[in-house]
Amino acid sequence: MKIDSHIIFEIHRLSDLGYKQRKIARQLGISRPTVRKYLENPKRERANLPGRPSKLDPYRDLIHQMLEKDPDVSAPVVLQHLTAKGFDGKVTIVRDYLRKQRGQKAFGQAFLRIESEPAEQFQIDWGHFGHITYGETRRKLYALAVVESFSRMIYVEFTHSQKQEVLHQCLLHAFSFFGGTAKQIVVDNMLTAVTERQGNLIRFNGHFLEFLRPFKITPVACHVRAAHEKGKIESAIKYLRYNFLPLRSFVDIVDANLQVRDWLHQVANVRLHQGTGCRPIDRFDQVQLRPLPSLLPDCRETSQVKVYKDFAVRFDANTYTTPPWVVGKLVTVKADSTTVSVYLNQKRVAVHQRSWERKKRIELPDHRDQVKKLQQKLWHDKNVAAFSSMGQPAVAYLKGLLESKQPIRKTVAKLLALKDQYGSASVLYAISKAAFFNAYGAEYIENILYQEMTPKNHHPPVQLKNEALNNIRLNEPCLADYDAYIVKRGQTDG
């Protein structure tokens, strides 16, 4: 078998760079004797010696047809088809033959290693690394790896998402880790970077370009199914998977990133790199990256949401509380891997530790205390006091309104208007009936009164010029207090 001229060229190029024969063989996927032969004589060919006949000889054409249909077809599948045609051999001989055929094909697709200049290029890629469990919630675990191509210096960050904002956050952290940016950034065809590709025509993701613009980085997209074009990051992901991950467990995403950062400093970036023969951290001394801009972009996940009656916002399947005075307003939620912040008109009004569980309420004690103070303040409101004076059913109904997060002042004003229209007794009856069905709101009381009661004759009072006097409401007198007073006075007189 004659080795392709590209392989011979690569053998001599690597030898000129000082590579040992063992390393050249491992790099090119060939044997050390083969390396030695072609170093001694680049034009040397193996003699075409007659070989022993093989059981597979009558089936070679059939095997080649199967390989053309599926180059990665497994040996057991090939054996099934051969057996149907009368082959009586074992899977071992089939597996050995497939290995040889795929080895020959690999020689025909040899790629030359292209070395980058210092600070010329970053390569990036995602890897999937299982999941982390939070309570009853499982979150997928991803890692974005970034490598500076000349030095092989690596940065890694674990995330629970590959969303656009998360990609930008990780890249921003990587640029800070390296202390600057390269001229180019090499990506595969992930949708967060490349939205459309037709041959050599590439349309990059607009958000990705907007993120890169202040850093003056040129994106470069690999061809489809051309992993060799970003071989350095492919090797980094593989190295992360087989050197860092085994025998490790993570409490949460913070723990995972602390462990990988320690691994980068103590192992990955201080090891002797097989490709360069140097430690990445030492070669990185030759790299002069472009400085970062003075104003860095805010890459947090961002969404606009409404603050609900329970003084909380919904984000990523959880609720996070806010001060109660923000209820009903449209706010902006910004989140990274550790915190969730709430902004009103660019002013931060709340910040929480991010929860990676789902369907949880994350509440600050201060927010709950503010709600209690507002509720206590409500009891001193003149209309609330007037409504409460109607008796215990009214007080109990008020508490139900508070627990159901109803607008108290607006609801009480409506209920007092219904009292003027139907009378205290009718309103108390409707309140008791609504409370029995846990129906809290002025509309329920109004509906009961409309269906079951008749408005009493209403004679509006004389309207005074001073509007404040027209709005005065007197508390309902408690007749039980008068009865107790009469009984007590009678006992004293007797």
From TrEMBL:
Biological process terms in GO annotation: DNA integration; DNA recombination; transposition
Keywords: DNA recombination, DNA-binding, Transposition
InterPro entries registered for this protein in UniProt: Homeodomain-like_sf (IPR009057), HTH_IS21_transposase_type (IPR017894), Integrase_cat-core (IPR001584), IstA-like_C (IPR054353), RNaseH-like_sf (IPR012337), RNaseH_sf (IPR036397)
Molecular-function GO terms, alphabetical: DNA binding
Keyword match Cell inner membrane: no
UniProt KW Oxidoreductase keyword: no
Domain Integrase catalytic: 114-288
Domain HTH IS21-type: 6-67
Domain of life: Bacteria
Name of one Pfam family that matches: Mu-transpos_C_2
Similarity annotation: Belongs to the transposase IS21/IS408/IS1162 family.
The protein's name in its UniProt record: IS21 family transposase
